[in-house]
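Lab notebook, bench 4. The sequencing result for the construct came back, and we need a structural model before the next group meeting so we can plan mutations. Quick request posted to the team channel:

Model the 3D structure of this chain.
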Amino acid sequence: MTDKPEHMPDRLALLSDTNAAKSLSTGVLASRENPPYIALSKNSEPLRGAGARLDVEPLRDLIDDVMHLYRDDARTKADAWLAPRLHAALRLTRREAADARLWNFVSLSVAPDYVVWRHLPATGKNGFPPMVAAERFRGAHYTQAFSRLWWAAELFRDGADYRPVQVACGNQDVLNTVLRLDIIDHRPTAQALIRLVEKGTARTGREVNALSAVANTAASTLMYDVFAADDAWDGSILEEWIREGDSAPPVSRRLLPDGPDDGPVPEKAVDTLVRYFEELFVDANVRGRLTDES
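Done. Here's the predicted structure in token form:
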């Protein structure tokens, strides 16, 4: 199995897609060899900025803890624990989190052992040994091992409240399907979808996929932010939360941390969309669901 890096970097850095791709040999993906740590270190670029939030140690401690806490459970359960704590520990802006080079560095230079632990399948395909998909190390924001968790926490949090993130990350179909949709950048839409998952209206993978499909299709003809308006966003609150990172205590392992308190999603807007999505879902095409006509 892949080892924890012996010489851990002190600070987060950036690793280009090209250099990340060069390090993803078949042996690394199959967990038969470690990434080339020396070459990765030479090819990484310092990350601009100061502050404790860019220190590697708190992030690495979180990763060690999640692998210990869920060592005997289905690895998918770890997502709901790690996502809010990863978000609260790193305190990134969206601009910073949109830089794939940051996540390349985390997956290959800080925690390749986590990527393997979480994403190595039990069996291989087409006669090959089990291998981690390369996009878990270097990929889109909805597939890369760490960016998917950070963005899930960012898009599904309700202001400072990370509880909707736990619901979202507790359902792999939300992570695998809903996280890809542009409509969840509208906060009331994201909260309405999660509310229906939490209520059990859309519970199975097929139901979640069908719900997200009808909500996304309807968005092409309806502007959700017109009839379910969100409040104006105050970026200064996020900036203050980021600055407070230097004096913040370590992220709690037992209790949910608080995110940036930039205001809850308006309840009226969420309620409006919940009712609307419920109506859409009645006629949604859910594979395997029996209808009156069948």
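The chain has 16 helices and two strands.
Will bring this to the meeting.
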